[in-house]
């Protein structure tokens, strides 16, 4: 999931450099959403691992 967020971030940066404002804005929005989802899933997995009494695998 983090890979997808980074991919859309790179697409947004490339589109912004070439002047495609709409494409850059859309790709940037998708990258932000995917990053937030990744962070939420990471935090949930850490909490579940701690609740089970196992150390989180980082």
Structure summarized in a few sentences:
Helices cover 81% and strands 0% of the residues. It has helices spanning 2-17, 21-51.
Descriptive keywords:
58 residues; 81% helix
Describe the protein in words.
The chain has 2 helices and no strands. The protein is an all-alpha fold and 58 residues long. It has one domain (2-51). The relative contact order is 0.15.
Total helical segments: 2
Which spans of ≥5 residues are poorly predicted at pLDDT below 50? none
- Kindly report how far apart the N and C termini lie: 16 Å
DSSP summary, beta strand count: 0
Cα Rg: 16 Å
Measured by DSSP, the beta-strand proportion falls in under 5%
How helical, in percent, are the residues? over 70%
Arithmetic mean pLDDT? 82
In the residues, how many domains can be counted?
1
Task: Assign an overall shape.
Answer: rod-shaped
Helix-strand topology string: HH
**What structural category do the secondary elements indicate?**
mainly alpha
Subunit arrangement of the protein: single chain
Main beta sheet: strand number and arrangement? none
């Amino acid at each position: 999931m983090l890979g997808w967020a980074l991919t859309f971030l790179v697409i947004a940066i490339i589109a912004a450099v070439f002047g495609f404002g709409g494409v850059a804005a859309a790709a940037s929005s998708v990258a932000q959403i995917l990053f937030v989802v990744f962070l939420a899933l990471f935090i949930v997995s850490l909490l579940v691992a701690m609740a089970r009494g196992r150390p989180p695998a980082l």
